[in-house]
Write a structure and sequence with these properties.
It is built from nine helices and 17 strands. By secondary structure, it is an alpha+beta fold. Strand 12 and strand 13 form a beta hairpin.
Length: about 400
């Protein structure tokens, strides 16, 4: 039998959720956000320089930097960065810019015992400290000891590397209380996992439209037949805030009808489904059988983004079961969602659109949009510069 996931006690969000949007003079009626939050270039630019630089963003996986000197470059919020593993085994992140005359230091991925700028060969230790540079000794009082690459706040969360451009940001465990422990319980093998497959999904919509769609199951029974009849029981689906996490819980369908084998005796959550969306752009999702997959939203512009779906196995060992799940997901739920979110994006630009009331059932459940209320509150906070833990 499938196992019901017990609902965890969750902390209140930091500000009143009723501040999301104007009411009609009735505190029980809360309308969705105006279309400008999803279409305005100015709001997108404000998110790029504000919200997305003050929150924890997914950078990569520790399997990309297994050995001393391994590195990979990436972009986030208009900044070029790179991660590496230093000689003490610490995963570090730096802005990808030389402190001499601003040339980029690395590209792609690789391994190096030192970081050498390709412009003038200024050379840095893996800690970021300047080691040497041609002819710098000839400069009187050259401040070599003061020169260091600019570091970025970095945390490893069960093997997943997250970065935050705010040097004073609170730890991930404060942003997402209880998630580390819950995820470890649902996926006991998580620290041994490596990526098996990445699926890139371009979407012609604002990144928040896509995330809102992911963060409610009000639409699931009508639009996701495979998911609603083959994985979860929609009538038991619920989503609750947990700090700046949205926790999805549900009972599962008849596990005998699953398309892959599940050993229910392997651990307490082998027959369970759950998901943890970490505001603003990442989610861990666990299918029955402790199958971990992830979502990573990458905003590109006010009306386009990319969703990266990650699938993982122990040691990255090939698995036909996991590869087939990835194909099934892409051909069903993902494909169905693309049509939904792109239609919403077109509608948000219509002069005829007047934001409607959210469906807020006091009993919560699958047909309530209380998760959207919380999510839109965080969206508005991000645009208005309200501190989100800091």
């Amino acid at each position: 039998m499938s196992q019901r996931v017990s609902k965890q006690p969750v902390p209140a969000t930091t500000t009143s959720a009723t501040s999301v949007a104007a009411s009609d003079g009735n505190d029980s009626v809360i309308r969705s956000l105006e279309g400008k939050y999803y279409t305005s270039p100015e709001i997108f630019a404000a998110e790029q320089t504000g919200l997305l630089t003050r929150t924890w963003q997914f950078a990569g996986h520790v399997s990309q930097v297994e050995n001393t000197g391994d590195y990979f470059a990436f972009e986030m919020s208009g900044e070029r960065l790179f991660c590496l593993r230093d000689r003490d085994g610490e995963v570090r992140t730096f802005y990808n810019v030389c402190q001499h005359r601003a040339h980029e230091l690395v590209s792609g991925s690789g391994n190096s015992s030192l970081i050498v700028c390709p412009y003038h060969a200024w050379t840095y230790e893996l800690t970021g400290k300047l080691r040497a540079g041609p002819n710098i000794r000839s400069v009187p009082n050259f401040p070599k000891s003061e020169i260091c690459l600019t570091g970025v706040r970095t945390e490893v969360f069960h093997g997943f590397i997250f970065v935050n451009l705010d040097p004073d940001a609170r730890a991930m465990d404060e942003w997402f209380p209880g998630v580390r422990e819950q995820l470890g319980a649902f996926v006991p093998q998580i620290d041994a996992l490596k990526p098996l497959e990445w699926v890139e999904i371009p979407e012609q919509c604002n990144w928040k439209v896509s995330i809102e769609n992911y963060s409610e199951c009000y639409h699931c029974s009508l639009n996701h037949r495979t998911f609603a009849t083959g994985v979860v029981k929609p009538e038991t689906y619920d989503i609750q805030p947990q700090g700046y996490c949205l926790r999805h819980t549900t009972e599962c369908q008849n596990l005998d009808a699953m398309t892959y084998p599940i050993d229910l005796d392997s651990n307490a959550y082998a027959g369970s489904y759950s998901s943890w969306f970490l505001w603003p752009t990442f989610s861990f999702q666990v299918y029955p059988g402790n199958v971990l997959n992830t979502y990573h939203w990458r905003p590109h512009g006010p009306e386009n983004c990319t969703v990266w779906r990650g699938w993982f196995t122990e040691g990255g060992v090939d698995s036909e079961v996991i590869r087939q799940l990835a194909v099934q997901d892409r051909e069903t739920t993902v494909e169905e969602d693309i049509h939904l979110v792109e239609s919403v994006q077109r509608g948000l630009k219509s002069r005829g659109y007047v934001p409607g009331p959210l469906v807020l059932d006091p009993g919560c459940g699958v047909n309530s949009e209380h998760s959207i209320r919380a999510l839109q509150q965080w969206m508005r906070e991000g645009v208005e510069g309200v501190s989100q833990l800091g």
